[in-house]
């Protein structure tokens, strides 16, 4: 049995830990052999492969990024995409594919599996933690740790200069990183994509913080939208799944706060720092377990499924179900954080 492995979408810490676990268990326990596909769906689409064996995965557990490369290639938008993938899988004698990705990469896996009979098992990945059907995705914990450390550091410099510091974190549709790092870092305002924010209210919180003789930290998810307007963007470019590239709301907020409150405001955009570097212990643990269970799903012939964390158990769910809707922040959970605003 030969199993193909690919990593698609935005990279995130823990991808290499999944690959290592899949290969270690697959070779040692089941005598499978493996082939890596380069750069997400671009690999099977264009027939670009990477050798994958136990020696190839030695030492990669703590390494960020992915040894297979990643891209946002959408093969369903490419000419004869499904036929080309099928031909390349046949050419490399690949029986089944383990696809490690977020909503887009896994959405393609669901279509290929359910509509075209290509045998796929999914592993959920995204620092945004917005995939339903799993309690957590790996990469999220690392990103929250990085953002929290940044907020801690920004507090001290904000206090020295008595200025507002706005921290823009990732989170396209879901504010999980903003909420968790904002709570952990003691932010005075947290803004998430799920709830439009009122700029007048944000300025009132900022002012009340200064009144208490402290400098405010505003954490904003890149996908947060003002009640009075539209999504704020730096430019209007899109990726190949048609998503507009985000970032810009942090700069916009600082300008508005400055002009409305008269207080100096600066912005730090954490950007890809949140996706880089070594995974946290939790993410290594989760990614490793996902890998071990994904290869078991292949062995059981349980295709069209995705491994997921439920409590402390790893379960299998249909990929189509997991990608049907996003997991967003519940209003009640967001309301809990309100005690610390202002
Ligand atoms: O999908 C995860 C994510 O981190 C989003 O929060 C963010 O908008 C996007 O990736 C950025 O992706 P790219 O690196 O392709 O610009």
Automatic annotation (TrEMBL):
**Signal sequence segment:** none
**Activity regulation field:** Non-allosteric.
Q: Which GO terms describe its cellular component?
A: 6-phosphofructokinase complex
Q: Which residues form the Phosphofructokinase domain?
A: 2-298
Q: Which cofactor does it need?
A: Mg(2+)
Q: Does the keyword Metal-binding apply?
A: yes
Q: Does the keyword Cytoplasm apply?
A: yes
| Pathway(s) the chain acts in | Carbohydrate degradation; glycolysis; D-glyceraldehyde 3-phosphate and glycerone phosphate from D-glucose: step 3/4
Q: Which residues bind substrate?
A: 126-128, 163, 170-172, 222, 266, 272-275
UniProt-listed Enzyme Commission number(s)? 2.7.1.90
Q: Quote any Pfam family the record assigns.
A: PFK
Q: Where is this site: Important for catalytic activity?
A: 125
Reaction(s) this enzyme catalyzes, per UniProt = beta-D-fructose 6-phosphate + diphosphate = beta-D-fructose 1,6-bisphosphate + phosphate + H(+)
Its localization reads: Cytoplasm
Query: Which UniProt keywords are present, listed alphabetically?
Result: Cytoplasm, Glycolysis, Kinase, Magnesium, Metal-binding, Transferase
Looking up PANTHER family in the UniProt record yields: ATP-DEPENDENT 6-PHOSPHOFRUCTOKINASE 3, PHOSPHOFRUCTOKINASE
Identify this protein by name: Pyrophosphate--fructose 6-phosphate 1-phosphotransferase
């Amino acid at each position: 049995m030969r199993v193909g492995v690919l990593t698609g979408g935005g990279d995130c810490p823990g991808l290499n830990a999944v690959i290592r676990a899949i290969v270690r268990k697959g070779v040692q326990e089941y005598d499978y052999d493996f082939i890596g596909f380069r750069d997400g769906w671009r690999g099977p689409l264009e027939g670009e492969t990477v050798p994958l064996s136990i020696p190839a995965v030695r030492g990669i557990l703590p390494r960020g990024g992915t040894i297979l490369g990643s891209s946002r290639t959408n093969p369903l938008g490419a000419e004869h995409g499904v036929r080309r993938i099928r031909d390349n899988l046949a050419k490399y004698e690949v029986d089944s594919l383990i696809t490690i990705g977020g909503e887009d990469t896994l959405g393609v896996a669901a279509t290929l599996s359910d509509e075209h009979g290509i045998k796929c098992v999914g592993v959920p990945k995204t620092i945004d933690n917005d995939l339903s059907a799993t309690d957590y995705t790996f990469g999220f914990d690392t990103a929250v740790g990085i953002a929290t450390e940044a907020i801690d550091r920004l507090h001290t410099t904000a206090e020295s200069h008595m200025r507002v510091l706005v921290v823009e974190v990732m989170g396209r549709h879901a504010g999980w990183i903003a909420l968790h790092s904002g709570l952990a870092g003691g932010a005075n305002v947290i803004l998430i994509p799920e709830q439009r924010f009122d700029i007048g209210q944000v300025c009132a919180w900022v002012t009340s913080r200064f009144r208490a003789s402290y400098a405010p930290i505003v954490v904003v998810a890149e996908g947060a939208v003002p009640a009075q307007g539209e999504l704020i963007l730096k430019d209007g470019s899109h990726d190949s799944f048609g998503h507009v590239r985000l970032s810009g709301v942090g700069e916009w907020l600082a300008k508005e706060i400055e002009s409305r409150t008269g207080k100096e405001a600066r912005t730090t955009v954490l950007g890809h720092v949140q996706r880089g570097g070594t995974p946290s212990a939790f993410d290594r643990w989760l990614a490793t377990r996902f890998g071990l269970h994904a290869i078991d799903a292949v062995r059981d012939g349980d295709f069209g499924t995705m491994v997921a964390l439920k409590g402390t158990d790893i379960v299998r769910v249909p990929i189509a179900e997991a990608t049907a809707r996003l997991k967003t922040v519940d209003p009640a959970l967001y309301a809990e954080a309100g005690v610390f605003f202002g």
